[in-house]
Amino acid sequence: EVQLVESGGGLVQPGGSLRLSCAASGFTFRMYVMSWVRQAPGKGREFVAAISWAVGVTDYGDSVKDRFTITRNNAKTTLYLQMNSLKPEDTAIYYCVASSTSGLRGPYHYWGQGTQVTVSS
């Protein structure tokens, strides 16, 4: 059974930091492009970041570039998202997603259940 389990979300003040984790199981993690996608209340899904399966090539959405960093540990089958300088507009449910294709922006084959990030004073 494929599982993607996110953790690390919560409430943080503007300017603060959070680190999200995604524990993966049930598929060959090292062979998948891994990404983070978010959905804010009343809005559609938005690409946040992706990391390739081999040499760690990364891609970021314009709204998070230079503030967020995506990394992966293939030995631990875990994906991470370090989020710094958080803004209220970063408030969303953050999903860990996996893709078996080579593209860094989908399509996505597996989804986690999501973790809530709220940025508010």
Short description:
The chain has 121 residues and is mainly beta.
Walk me through the topology.
Layout (H helix, E strand, L loop, with lengths): L2 E5 L2 E3 L5 E8 L7 E7 L5 E7 L6 E3 L7 E6 L4 E6 L8 E8 L10 E2 L3 E5 L2
Parallel strand pairs: 2-11
Antiparallel strand pairs: 1-3, 3-8, 4-5, 4-9, 5-6, 7-8, 9-10, 9-11
The rough form would be described as globular
Secondary-structure class: mainly beta
The H/E string reads EEEEEEEEEEE
Rounded to the nearest angstrom, the radius of gyration is: 13 Å
Biggest beta sheet summary: 7 strands, mixed
**DSSP strand count:** 11
Q: What are the segments in which pLDDT stays under 50 over at least 5 consecutive residues? A: none
Strand content: over 45%
Distance between the termini: 39 Å
Mean pLDDT over the residues = 96
Q: Portion of residues in helices? A: under 10%
Please work out how many helical segments DSSP would assign: 0
Tell me about this structure:
It is built from no helices and 11 strands. With 121 residues, the protein is mostly beta strands. Strands 2, 4, 5, 6, 9, 10 and 11 form a 7-stranded mixed sheet that branches. A 4-stranded antiparallel sheet has the order 1-3-8-7, with no helix packed on it. The protein is globular, with a radius of gyration of 13 Å. The N and C termini lie far apart (39 Å). The model has no long low-confidence stretch (mean pLDDT 96).
